[in-house]
Amino acid sequence: MQNAAATNGAGASQPKKLEPLIYDLGAPGRIGVNLPDCDVPKTALPADLLRADLALPEVGEVQVVRHFVKLSKLNYSIDQGLYPLGSCTMKYNPKINEDAARLPGFAQLHPLTDGDGAQGALFLMHELQTWLGEISGFEAVSLSPAAGAQGEFAGILMIRQYHIDRGEGQRDIILVPNSAHGTNPATVTMAGMSVRELPADAQGNVDLAALRDVCAGDLRDRIAGMMITVPSTLGLFEATILDVVEAVHDAGGLMYMDGANMNALMGAVKPGQLGFDVMHYNLHKTFSTPHGGGGPGSGAVGVTAALAPYLPGPVVAVIEEENEQEPPLYGLVMPEKSIGRLKAFQGNFGMHLRAYAYIRVYGDAGIRDVTRYAVLNANYLRARLMATYKVPYPRYCGHEFVLEGHFDDAEDVHALDISKRLMDYGFHPPTNYFPLIMPEALLIEPTETEVKEDLDAFVAAMERIAEEARSEPETLLNAPHTAPVRRLDEVKAVKELVLCCAPALPIGARD
Amino acid sequence: MSYIPHTDAETRQMLRAIGVDSIDDLFEAVPAAHRFPGLDLPAPMSEMDVAAEMLAISEANDHAGDFAVFRGAGAYHHFIPSVVNHMLLRGEFYTAYTPYQPEISQGTLQATYEYQSMMCALTGMDAANASHYDGATSLAEAVTVALEAGRRKRKKIILSHAINPQYREVVRAYHLGRDIRIIGDRGRGEVVDLMEMLDDNTAMLAVQYPNYFGQIDDFSRLAEAVHASGALLVFVANPIALSLFKSPGELGADIVVGEGQPLGIPLGYGGPYLGYFAIRQKYVRRIAGRIIGETVDADGRPAFVMTLRPREQDIKRERASSNICTNQGLMALAASIYLALMGKNGLRQVGELNYHKAQYAADQIDRLDGYSVDRSKPFFNEFVVACPRPVAEINDELLAEGIIGGVDLGEHYFHLQDHMLVCVTETNSKAEIDRLAEILGGLN
After folding, report:
1. Do A78 and B91 touch (CB under 8 A)?
2. CB contacts, 8 Å: B224 with chain A
3. Which band of pLDDT confidence, cut at 50, 70 and 90, is reported for residue B414?
4. Is residue A498 a part of any domain in this protein?
5. Which of A360, A381, A397 is the last residue of a domain?
6. What does the pLDDT look like over B122-150, one tens digit per residue?
């Protein structure tokens, strides 16, 4: 096989892969499925259009099962333990939601089913739109964006179009704090606008004086809006948020809230009431839809009445009001001045239905408790770890907090080493080196679903690691020791760029 | 309290450790006037009741469990082996995050690497990323790559009208803020007409394979013409069709994108799906989204890691070419499992079943009075039928007989009023096809 030299070419003494590649399993002629015979008369295939070869594996069903079970065991997951990955809200993913998603009425529903035949799905989406609007204080919601980053993109495109329609198309600058997620500035560029970065003050808030300077300066008429995460990526609620909103609105800009940290806000405050014009929700964070090892996500957007006509479509609306005999008739519609369609069909419906079931279980009181206990857990960990680690910003945190992954008396040890050592103690590491404004940041988000015993065990592990940093730093620098593999050579990965192990294609097919 | 495990005693202990009296004290930074607003949501519900409600809602839909489906147009009802779902339900896969910590994510990383490899094999490309959101957004991302490859000086994008109309809408929305021209899809231009539009301002030309009407166009001179103009050739391809037909790589494509849903992902009312994206080696550094590469660990053990990271938004920020962050990891895993099960022999068999059944269905319908099938080009598992009555009327009648008929092409194509796009897959039995023809025959 062509890839053998590239991947397994090392001498016999070199360690082997933990599990062979699927291409290295199997035998010619083997097949992993049992397909039906053709029950119609066959038609001749158009010979001149056919391919000569198809370089896929040839493995049996049992082999496939074992292969993927073995691979699964090389992963860490929420189902195994605490996953305190800041800004990612790794909460428990309820099992019933997985069952619901697999009901034939959802899983086997064609996306182009005529409205009458999809009333169940449309009802569910309509309810979810309404609930998300209620939770965040917005007038209208579209569920169509496929992920948080698409929700952001939708938000910025709506802001852009709003200004254009008002004859203020010169407004092309979006203000972004330097603590922002990388998706924020990338989104602005994708929408054809420019980023103006804002500094943070000593408390981790947006530097209000700097913001007011920009809003009063030469760029005033070019300010389209501002993107800000609340609470901030440091896990702190901006004490001056109302002043920030006012400054940007006064300059004619609109306020975008990055809803990545919504787990700190539900029932505590409604972004719409704070003056925000648009925000996105991460259903895969706040509303427990699984992260899936890197997606799918779902990034609904909520807006004020002024921006509602610009929402990405389609959205679900009541087409015929209910009467004594009939329930309301729901349908998919494109908002009047919609920025358009950001993905085919109507969003990641499988995530919508999981979020629906999640909100339904918690209900009015429970949704507020999600936030209350998420904030309790974060503040508990913060209070316990303050004795051992430097915790900047002497304030209660939201659903997450940063601490410094570095000690003055153990200079060689860095946040990355602490993260890797946590794996040996059976925990997923926190987010490290984010937000960028804080050196050696460890961003810790336990979520509300973690039991106190596990939080205490995490504290004990962090305390032990802090001791090891002084007594045996090498143990940290070489960590992890018990994970399936040790630290990886990322430079080699970039330099040699082995991205594919499929056998070579027929001659002439490549450059 | 549902999924919150705290006892009152524990809550009190935790509050004491923090040094506050109540949880609400932790929210002091929220402006008092807006703190703890009312929430108008329904009351909490037990798991048992939620399960019953979800079942009731789901059954208010006309789904493929109860109906024979002859509808495709970008979403396809295929057989999915049980193994796929069982593997996806392993919590180790679906409750993991993006594999930023490779030491404890080798499962996701290797499965994604295998997915990339199998997509390369199918498409005839050198590299594939870990996925985009769906086929439409993959095409929109291909536009970005082509603009970058043309050093942002080439500003013309040529799209065939026979690309899925929703995909073309997505491309336009994605690039609203960019100074580019998207042309080619307003009329009914054939591939040769698109070739006429090529010039030194063209960044890319995209076609669909099989096209939106299920047909295979003549691409024999296309690659040469596109490359002579200095543009990139992009194929939007149905991966099941690639089990039978020449790979886009063989036909000269530079980028191949498409909807991976047919590879083991249920219809699911349109999502989550899988945008696959494959490309030739020379453009690989322009690819957006996550890519998994092979390397070694500190002991020299071969292992996998996310690579080419500096392209991504969390590092490059406003200079990144895309903001993509989360992709469709679990859906790529589904495709990986599906392709491993089907393999070289099974996927070809699925492709042939689709082909033979669609040809058979077309024969049955074509001979009916008032109906005619467009046979001007070879087709795979979809075909266009000219109908004697409006498609909506026919579909109402079919629905009453337990059949979900084809898409009404008149909604997106003015010249195709009263034309239906019929899809036939391996899931449609001969009896279903015969029944479809019988009912249509009675509706002329």
Report:
1. yes
2. none
3. very high
4. no
5. A360
6. 999 999 999 999 999 999 999 999 999 99
